[in-house]
Amino acid sequence: MKDKLLVVKIGGSIIENDSILNDFLKSFSKIKGRKILVHGGGKIASSFLKKIGIVPKLIEGRRITDKNTLDVVIMTYAGLLNKKIVSTLQKYNCNSLGLSGSDGNLILAKKRRVEKIDYGFVGDIEKINTNLLDEIINMKICPIICSLSHDKKGQIFNTNADSIASKISIELSKRFDVTLKYCFDKPGLLSNNNLINSINTSDYKNLIEKNIIKDGMIPKIDNCFYALKNGVNEIFIGNHNIIKSIKNCTTLTL
């Protein structure tokens, strides 16, 4: 029987709002057992970009990352946000280690191919260093992973945090019984402001056709179903409260 592992991805207002982030991390710190936290921070990165006169460019929730944008993303994700999260968890006695994809060769990626859109310095994941994560977890240290990868040739890439959480969950499901939680601004998937308690792949297609699921939510849900099809035990989507309870959120099933 496999040991249990919780993988949580946070983004949106959870990271932007200091009070919500503190409450979330306090609750996260109380969770016993093996756990990993993956974080984005796109809205904060966009805010810093605007302050220095760079207009953020996103297509269907995915950021176009030129050289200047990449510099801001690295500073925001691996610096400000990652260390802020780690230090807060230490306050709550959750021993944590902040990591980017280049640390310990954690996330190896290749530059996204230019097809219809040139995304710039965006990486598509090729390999996760699961041995490193396994060692850290077994030391009872919680990995805090930001959304950056690298190519082992000196180039850092901006990489979708949802994809990182999904890929890490899939790879570690070979060793653990993995639960994946995506925490963002809303209590779950909504239809006419009503919570959708559960969706399967057929429901998902219908919700896209009805334009209920759209834009940046599509790659998020794509990652969820990809993870379910490749070994992850269960997936929940909701706001920061799902770290405490899964009564009011959206459950994804095949």
In terms of topology, how is this protein built?
Elements: E1 3-10, H1 13-16, H2 18-29, E2 34-39, H3 42-51, E3 58-59, E4 62-63, H4 67-91, E5 96-99, E6 107-111, E7 123-128, H5 130-138, E8 142-146, E9 148-150, E10 156-158, H6 161-172, E11 176-183, E12 190-191, E13 194-195, E14 198-199, H7 201-209, H8 217-229, E15 234-238, E16 250-252
Parallel strand pairs: 1-2, 1-11, 2-8, 5-8, 11-15, 14-16
Antiparallel strand pairs: 3-4, 6-7, 9-10, 12-13, 15-16
Helix pairs in contact: 3-4, 6-8
State the distance separating the first and last CA atoms: 23 Å
* SS summary, helix count: 8
Main sheet record: 8 strands, mixed
Mean pLDDT: 95
Counting helices, strands and paired strands, the structural category is: alpha/beta
Give the count of structural domains.
Answer: 1
The rounded Rg comes to: 17 Å
CATH architecture label: 3-Layer(aba) Sandwich
Question: How would you describe this protein?
Answer:
The protein has helices at residues 13-16, 18-29, 42-51, 67-91, 130-138, 161-172, 201-209, 217-229; strands at residues 3-10, 34-39, 58-59, 62-63, 96-99, 107-111, 123-128, 142-146, 148-150, 156-158, 176-183, 190-191, 194-195, 198-199, 234-238, 250-252. By secondary structure, the protein is an alpha/beta fold. The protein has one domain: Acetylglutamate kinase-like (Carbamate kinase, 3-Layer(aba) Sandwich). The chain has an 8-stranded mixed beta sheet with strand order 5-8-2-1-11-15-16-14, sandwiched between helices. A hairpin with a 5-residue loop joins strand 9 and strand 10. The longest helix is centred in the first third of the chain and has 25 residues, at 67-91. The chain is globular and about 40 Å long. The mean pLDDT is 95.
